[in-house]
Amino acid sequence: MRGLIPIKAGANTREKYVNNIIRAFNRATPAQKDRGRYWYQTAHDIAVMLSDGDARAGAGVIAALSANKSWRENQRLAERAFGPEGPGGHVRDAVRKVERILLGEDPEDVLPMDAKTGHFYRCILDPEDPDPVVIDRHAHDVAVGETYGNDERGLSSKGRYALLAHCYREAAMRLGEIPSVVQAVTWVAQTQRIAGTGHRTREHAEDE
To answer: Measured between alpha carbons, how far is 138 from 148 in angstroms, rounded to an integer?
Structure first.
């Protein structure tokens, strides 16, 4: 069992995380970089299509249904939510959030905006937004430089989430990219790197 990373990491530790992210980005293949650069734009287009043009509702529904679901399953559940069958196939809390969004509530009043779900929503809504960063299990492992597999990462901690998001923003600034692009590119590379290694048994929201 690996230990949780410190919430109040020192300057040297933060610099190590930033450098790990930069190295992972630079190691990505051209194909991985292309896919990562368009990941959130593609998700945005899906959100618009499913919601008949209401990007906020589409992004909100996708984000609300993202927890502990593969990206493929996430899309399927979002399509169901907007269809005649209606929302379902997830835990009651997630389904209730979707119901509220479909009834017209602003997703920012429904979703936990300081957590991964809220950041995921913002990245899908506006792929060029320079602030939100989706910190999932893979983003954590890229920054830390170690694959945790199914070990706990403690990402429900606001302080730990903020620390890693800061590191991605710093890495993005040095790379001349926006944070969501750096996260998406390194996510694509990381998931492809560990495919078939036994570390993909409990994938989270953005996983394939």
So the answer is: 9
The 10s digit of each residue's pLDDT in 153-191 is 999 999 999 999 999 999 999 999 999 999 999 999 999
With residues binned 3-state (H G I as helix, E B as strand, rest as coil), the percentages for the chain, rounded to 5, are 60, 0, 40
Q: Which residue has the tokens 């409990």?
A: 202
In a domain, 201, yes or no: no
For the purposes of burial, counting CB atoms within 10 Å of the CB of 124, is it exposed (0-12), middle (13-18) or buried (19 or more)?
buried
- How many other β-carbons are positioned within 10 Å of the β-carbon of residue 56? 16
Say yes or no to pLDDT of 44 above 80.
yes
DSSP result, 30-63:
HHHHHHHHHHHHHHHHHHHHHTTT-HHHHHHHHH
Domain count, the chain: 1
Percentage of the chain exceeding pLDDT 70: 93
Q: Give pLDDT tens digits for 92-134.
A: 999 999 999 999 999 999 999 999 999 999 999 999 999 999 9
d(CA 139, CA 183) in angstroms, rounded, equals: 7
Q: Can you give the C-alpha Rg of the chain in angstroms?
A: 16
* 148 belongs to a structural domain: yes
C-alpha to C-alpha distance for 81 and 103, rounded to whole angstroms = 12
User: Where in the sequence is the domain holding 177, given as residue range(s)?
Assistant: 11-194
Is there a domain that residue 6 lies in?
A: no
